[in-house]
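Cont'd.
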Amino acid sequence: MNSIIDDIRAAARQLLADGKVDVVIGYEKGSLPLKSTPCFVRSPQDADKLIWDETCENNLATYAAQTAGKKAIIAKGCDSRALMVLLQENQLVRDDLYIIGVSCPGVIDKNKIEAETGEIIEATITDGKVSVKGIACDKEYNFADVKDATCQTCRYPNPVIVDLKIGGSVEVPQSDFADVIALENKSDAERKAYFKEQMSKCIRCYACRNACPMCYCQECFVDCNAPKWLTGGVDSAENLLFQTGRALHLAGRCVECGACSRACPQGVDIRALSRKVNKDVKEMYNHESGISEDIKPALNVYSADDPEEFLVKE
Amino acid sequence: MKISKEKFGQSFDALTAEYQVVAPVSEAGAVNFKTAKSFSEVKQDYLNSKLPPKSLLFPQHEKLLSYVKEGKDITVKNELKVGKTVLFGIRPCDAKAMLLLDKVFKNDQYRDPYYFDRRDNTVIIGLACNKIAPTCFCSSMGISPACSEGSDLLLIDLGDSYNVEVITEKGKELLASLGELSELSAQEQALVDTVKSAQTTSKVDVSTITAKLDKMFDNSYWDTLHEKCLGCNACSFSCPTCHCFDISEEVIKSEGSRVRTWDACMAPLFTLHGSGHNPRDKKKSRWRQRMMHKFNYFVHNNGDIACVGCGRCIKGCPVNMDIRQAIDGVNKAEVVVD
């Protein structure tokens, strides 16, 4: 990990010193234990604040379009997939983007730890062990046991598009949609109860939407008041309408980074909806978003031999 | 003076017949303030609720009035519903926050009936903090983990009993229905003294922030502070003092209602004019507004800083924007004097 950090810093320093980019978007140490925070490095001497570890949980692709000038971005597998989709959707100019790819070991689910230890006072990560001093108790975890749920089903931990690759590749875990199938196999009543409970927690702060690199609409449907698609009411039904609308809007575009779920201050299982949509897209279109420049987004292409007649009406 | 938890619990249960009793309850994996029917539902050992109790007086989405149009006739109905409420177990930071909200919803020009009719009918039983989170910094904001400001009664948890302190007349009246009090043992008195003298470990310096911000509207500090902010409302909605709202009409055909919904200065839509112009169209100006409102404008208008150091915004932020660091940044910023 340390040599990766050194290489990231050296690369950032060089890019800024050579004037190849105006800013390097990466991570620095956060103010809380087991938390990093996004940072914007603009001078070579500031490159030393960049870090890389299992706390680098934000998807930095979210900042790509809103940051002016030429930018380098530290990209995990999922960040790189997001950048690929944004490029395909013409949201980014390739020449203004320099992708520093780093293979990702997965990130820590801090909420899972705090559910047992209470608020974390101190924590260290060494050799795959996470040692935590909490307000309720102290505990040591194997990293694998407190890895974020998204990372446990990740099929692309290695960046798919890079200008510079730092460090080696990591093994790609075997993964299927077992979590989605388990949800599909529940009865309607059980599923309804599950989503009702999850959605009851949502406070409509839109952290999920704003953390999502794919949610870049100038005007989100929830903010539109003519027509008013949904109210500001925070009951389960309105919240589910928002979350379902968002999940469907991400069909064929979601890169499964899990930034939405990790951003949620209320711990709502937002991924459950997008995972289901992703499984459907995979089955219906054999499509996974942002894994190759040659594959066009599933629902953004027009073909004269489309099997749906209404799409090819003369 | 103290009351045993057993006796307090019985009184609590009896109060539910006359009052809506709102208390910290564990639900869907988080502790929040909800209506409790029995003391057995109350979560005892909690640091603080996930969301602040402000929604009891100032709901996130509230129907103010409703109307029906029939031909040329319009019937308007006031939707304000008020009942007697006991708010049990709120922490000193949140109790202080209620005093700050009071200043927003009532002044010499207006009184918000929706907030204040409920407020006047609410008795607050504060519960001091025996445990202090690393993100708590109330000691820097003029209060402390056992501060009584804003509570009508203040309890300190002694294990099997509560130390009871009467703060207001309202509290004194409620105490009469709680049961007999007894003397503290020397050991219990020592615990009370410990809790009362406790301070948060995390601290910030706000001694000069208001005066400093007077000169910082055009400071370059704002150019970078906001950069990683996602512009969501997680901080504002979890803040016990944030109080901005939007009023809108929800109408279907000839029936509708006027609703008040929480809004926040972090969202671009908050200041978007009907003309399309947005005076705060950049995250930079929105973050400046957040800091200015809490640490400068509110002080000038109401005499207090609009932050109580509960730390919820720090814990809830998806990108680890930390208000303590933002305050430090203001303290360190260079101010050009003309």
